[in-house]
Amino acid sequence: MEEHEFQCPYCWESISMLLDSSQSEQQYIEDCEVCCNPIQISVQFEGQNLVIFRAENIEQ
Questions:
Q1: Cβ-proximal residues to 36 (8 Å cutoff; 6+ apart), any chain
Q2: Which of 16, 28, 34, 60, by CA, is between 20 and 30 Å from 6?
Q3: Does residue 7 come out as left (phi exceeding 0), alpha (psi in the -120 to 50 range) or beta?
């Protein structure tokens, strides 16, 4: 597990989350712990190294 910090695409608050590097590519939805809006999270690892991280708002 790797801790990663990023800004919420809705409220711009800093958020920290644990990422699982055991799977090379992942996509999921996580609610912001501050404003509760849904964030589309996309990550890609090469080995144990995080190479891509995206946190995007979900148009509603």
A1: none
A2: 60
A3: beta
Q: Is it the case that residue 59 has pLDDT exceeding 80?
A: no
Concatenated DSSP letters for 3-43?
EEEEE-TTT--EEEEEE-TTSSEEEEEEE-TTT--EEEEEE
Residue 39 burial by Cβ neighbours in a 10 Å radius (0-12, 13-18, 19+): buried
Taking only the tens place, the pLDDT of each residue in 8-54 is: 999 999 999 999 999 999 999 999 999 999 999 999 999 889 999 99
pLDDT on residue 60: 59
In 3D space, the residue among 53, 51, 50, 56 whose CA is nearest the CA of residue 32 turns out to be: 56
The rounded distance, in Å, linking the Cα atoms of 32 and 9 is 9
